[in-house]
Amino acid sequence: MNSVRSKACGWFPVRGSNTEPIIRVVAEAASEAQARDIIGTVFAQVETCINS
Description:
Layout: E1 2-6, E2 10-16, E3 23-25, E4 28-29, H1 32-51
Antiparallel strand pairs: 1-2, 2-3, 2-4
């Protein structure tokens, strides 16, 4: 599992599943809105990597 601190005052682990074809992204931040923003940004970056 890899975790990265965000400039948006939070952090997020990105973890690929060993049993399912999925990638989990979980974010922790000071507010739900900040966590959702982090997840949206990370999701877009992961999607770009998968589709390239």
